[in-house]
Specification:
Helix content is about 30%, strand content about 25%. The chain is α/β, with parallel strands linked by helices. β4, α4 (about 115-120) and β5 form a beta-alpha-beta unit. It is globular, with a radius of gyration of 22 Å. The chain starts with a helix and ends with a strand.
């Protein structure tokens, strides 16, 4: 007989599986599933890279005939509609699963309670909202797309204690130590894409890849906001576009020859309406959602950071602080963006604090 502690323990195992898929399952959420028969785990699965097969199908495949009469622990309500594959509810029912324990409901209009209803109609016992907060956090990017039509945005900053990202001469490598830089690659690996502004590309010529061997099974999408297509054709980003996807968000009316040269190099161009800041950032994020992205890590300079903060588009903040001070003549983490009163400041709530050598990573979420 199951207990709350037992259910939570198995759901934590399913959550661990789901977290392993973060950054590789878009446009689908990363889901984990554990199947338990007579107090023994007989099946495990998570959403595969690219979003299919789903976690339930993978776990049922491992469980085989042992799934009959078993309990399935799933971090997200099973899908109840036929898309590129059949509904997971049908797979669970046909396998003879007796009970399904669900972490979080699926707000997608094609599911949104229908999965639970189908299971119960077939005589399957269903328990909901087990470790709901933790399960909802794992699908936060998917939820953002469903509810706000844009990806979840995490802004990553690395600065001195006084919030400077470079000296007055723009020297910035390396503010933080090796352990912190490795942590950044791990953060990149758990997102669908990493985004930077063209200013960062011109000054640093970055790779914007996840350089932890074996961390991902699929390449990370790199995105540049570049209104006038100034990204150099010989930049590292363009030269590696055939291996690591490179997308550029640009304003309408960009030079046709420049567009053709970048496209011939394998770059994906996404045209956006012009704005006073170059491109409309909200429109850009909405376009990225339509192209299947759910989780974006932003590694821009002070101008891009300020633009996103001004527009209220930063959902999470990952701030690395190095134990050093540059002073007021250094370059700030965020340029001026029109805050004249304390009431108008973007506000965040503390989520976690970690140490990486002498550097500190503080993670925040946008205040409700």
């Amino acid at each position: 007989m199951s207990t709350k502690a037992t259910d939570e323990a198995h759901m934590r195992a399913a959550l661990a599986l789901a977290r392993r898929g973060l950054g590789e399952t878009a446009p689908n959420p990363s889901v984990g599933c554990v199947i338990v028969a007579q107090d023994r785990v007989v099946g495990r699965g998570r959403t595969a890279a690219g979003g299919r097969p789903h976690a339930e199908v993978e776990a049922l495949k491992m469980a085989g005939s042992a799934a009959r009469g078993a309990t399935a622990y799933v971090t997200l309500e099973p899908c109840a509609f036929t898309g590129k594959t059949g509904p997971c509810t049908s797979a669970l029912i046909e396998a003879g699963i007796k009970r399904v324990v669900i972490g979080a409901g699926d707000p997608h209009p094609k599911v949104n309670g229908a999965g639970v209803a189908q299971l119960r109609a077939a005589g399957v016992a269903v328990d909901e909202n087990i470790l709901q907060k933790e399960c909802t956090a794992v699908i936060s990017g998917f939820l953002s797309v469903v509810q706000r039509q844009r990806p979840l945005v995490r802004l990553k900053l690395a600065s001195t204690l006084d919030g400077r990202i470079a000296t007055s001469t723009k020297e910035s490598q390396w503010l933080t130590g090796e352990a912190a830089r490795r942590a950044v690659h791990a953060i990149r690996g758990r997102h669908d894409a990493v985004l930077a502004g063209v200013g960062t590309v011109l000054s640093d010529d970055p790779d914007l890849t996840c350089r932890i061997e074996g961390f991902r099974s699929s390449p990370l999408v790199r995105i540049v906001i570049d209104s006038h297509l100034r990204t150099p054709l010989m930049s590292r980003l363009v030269r590696t576009a055939a291996i690591h996807p490179l997308w550029i968000l640009h304003r309408n009316g960009a030079d046709a020859l420049r567009k053709r040269a970048l496209e011939n190099a394998g770059v994906k161009l996404i045209e956006l309406p012009a704005s006073s800041a170059g491109v409309d950032l909200l429109a850009g994020l909405q376009a990225l959602a339509k192209h299947g992205l759910t989780r974006i890590l932003v590694e821009g300079g002070g101008t891009l950071s300020a633009g996103l903060l001004r527009a209220g588009l930063v959902d999470r903040l990952a701030w690395f602080h190095a134990p050093s001070i540059i002073g007021g003549d250094g370059w700030p983490a965020a340029q001026a963006f029109g805050v004249s009163t304390l009431a108008s400041m973007p506000r965040f709530k503390l989520m976690a604090r970690e140490s990486f050598g002498d550097d500190i990573l503080t993670t925040y979420r946008k205040a409700d």
